[in-house]
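Researcher: Next entry in the queue.
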Amino acid sequence: MAGYRLWRAADLFCWLRDKMADFRPTRVEEPPRDPRVHVGIDDTTGTSQEGMLYTVEYRAFEQSVPPEPRSAGAPSRYEWSFVARVRTERSLGELHGVGTLGGERRLVWVEPYNGWLECPQELKDAIKQAKYVRMVLATPAIFSKGWLPGWLQEEEMGGSRALIGCPPTMASTGLKLRLIGAAVPRRVPVSGWSLRRSSYGPKPVRWCAPAGAVYFFEVVAGDSAKLVDGWLQPVSDTNLGHESGTRYCESGYGLALWGVWTPETGGVS
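Model: Structure for this entry, 269 residues:
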């Protein structure tokens, strides 16, 4: 639905359980966009390059709370928090204090958090009994076939051809999913900045299937309960034709949420 790019967790879980009669999502305002115009700099002279104007769009997380609905003594700015799962040899207690975040290295407060977005028990029970499941990308995914996962292969089924497969992290479970349909917005570019001395500078742009893309499947073999273990696990391809191996999966590309749907009630639409 237009204007609902961000969802509350409770609304998301309701939708993943296919409880459409109870589905009344709350509108969540996005952080304001902050477009800025910059000029290219000549590395040799340190001066601006003629005609090299470009625009960068930021998210302004320093968002003021409108004075009207604000109660006495309430903060004047919204507070935003990001949750990240990290691998570290240090204890969680050491990951505590002031840090920097974003292109302008704004100050942030870092602290351990154990409230990771776990799959609710009601949704787990629904997935375990489901014949039809849906996969929602929580983060952009890298697939060898653009929007289509490379782990889906064309096979003969019931006298016709079908796209069947299973995410790499569940390949040994015996689970097989048949693609019924998909709702995929336009691809998105993802890049970054390398701090390695051998490759210092902007990283190559990767075109990804965007977060929010939904894939509708039928379970044709195996136990759908295995999908519960795949909650927020990567579904990006691992055989991308170069030495990346599983690097993109380990970097968090293609973390997926799983839910159920019912063809009889128009779940695909």
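Model: Residues 9-29+118-265 form a domain with the Immunoglobulin-like fold (CATH 2.60.40.4350).
Researcher: Noted, moving on.
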